[in-house]
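User: My collaborator and I are trying to settle a disagreement about how two of our proteins should look. Neither of us wants to argue from intuition anymore, so we agreed to look at predicted structures for both before our next call. Could you fold the first one, then the second, and keep them clearly separated?

Assistant: That sounds like a sensible way to settle it. I'll keep them separate. The first protein:
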Amino acid sequence: MPRAVNNCLGVTLGDRIGRLEPEFLRSAEARRRIVLVAIVALVVAFLPIAGLLLAGFIAFMRHRDGDNTMRNLMLALAIFALWELTSLENQGGIGWSLL
């Protein structure tokens, strides 16, 4: 009995979905990088001090490995965490006066 997802050319639904997926998402390394950036962004958003330390550490490690794109993304997240810490002066943030 033929499968219902095949058309007359023998192309399955999975083949069609695979063609719609962007090329950069097909590799496991690219998906790992996207997940890493998403996790660090969440940590920066909710725990800026921990996010600053985490993003700085990952930026250092990626710089050492020669991965400039991830280094720059992590530095941007670290700058955002620093901005988040310093801009909340009235809500208990660090504030520029202490720096």
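The second protein, kept apart from the first:
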Amino acid sequence: MTKDKKISIFDILNKIDDGDYKAYEEVEKDFNPYMTMKWLASCKDPVRIRLVNEIINPLVFHLNQDKELMYYLMCSISDGKRKRYNWVKRYKNPNKEKEKIISE
């Protein structure tokens, strides 16, 4: 891929799923550890979700400046199989009365 072309989040996720450690130079410019973590946790695989929550989530803000290390950590939790990712929408509580009681 050329340096001028913007890489999509799905390309980054595929490289992480494949465990492609060498691809960091390709995705370095467009790699955002926090957003990638959110996408990695949006698959249906319970093992992947647990690994993301236990390994990546506690470190994402502490190691955010070292994007290369975060990319390597994300590759390390891969099982080599590509996953299907769906963005999890924000939960909107239709019951405003509960929110009012809790906020008081």
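Some points you might bring to the call about the second protein. The CA atoms of residues 25 and 85 lie 23 Å apart. The chain has one domain: 9-83.
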